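Step 1: inspect the first sequence and its tokens.
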Amino acid sequence: MKALKIVAVALGATLAALIVIPLLVLAGLFIWLKLTEEADDEALELEQEPA
């Protein structure tokens, strides 16, 4: 029974990792996209002013 419990915990942890890790990656990419999008907008504004 102890081995079965260990296998169940390991399987649960693996499934949780398979769900949580991609979500964290997507959240990080989303935040990076938002930050760089704002930076791009500011760069475009700066380029348009002198012209």
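Step 2: inspect the second sequence and its tokens, then contrast the two.
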Amino acid sequence: MLNLIEVRTVLGPHPTSVGAARRFVRDVLMSRQVSMNIVDTVELLTSEVVTNAIIHGGSGPQLAVEIDGDVIRVAVRDASPEVPVRRLGRVDDVSGRGVVIVEELASAWGVERERNGAKRVWFEVAC
């Protein structure tokens, strides 16, 4: 079992931050010797949530990775009060599948609203 660890970073409000978020999550998980298939899943889900935060959040998102026992929790905070919604897209759509991917691959996920109007979108994956 892994001991509790929480690591945070602040990302810029531009598309290159998605790659930075993926690298950050990968580095944290690999340093804790999390299995590669779990790392890949968490990395993908992180990119979906961070992309949504950059496109719809109106600010540079804050990213937190928490490992507690056999659960990895990633939370992304942005300044927008708007919660992510599942979109019914067409097969040939190139975007709009983020929530569907998170719903399918995460063991749990949710949104927490903050008093200042910001929100945190989080997901968990068992490791």
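Step 3: confirm your contrast with the notes below.
The helical segments are 16-31, 36-57, 98-105. The two ends are 9 Å apart (CA to CA).
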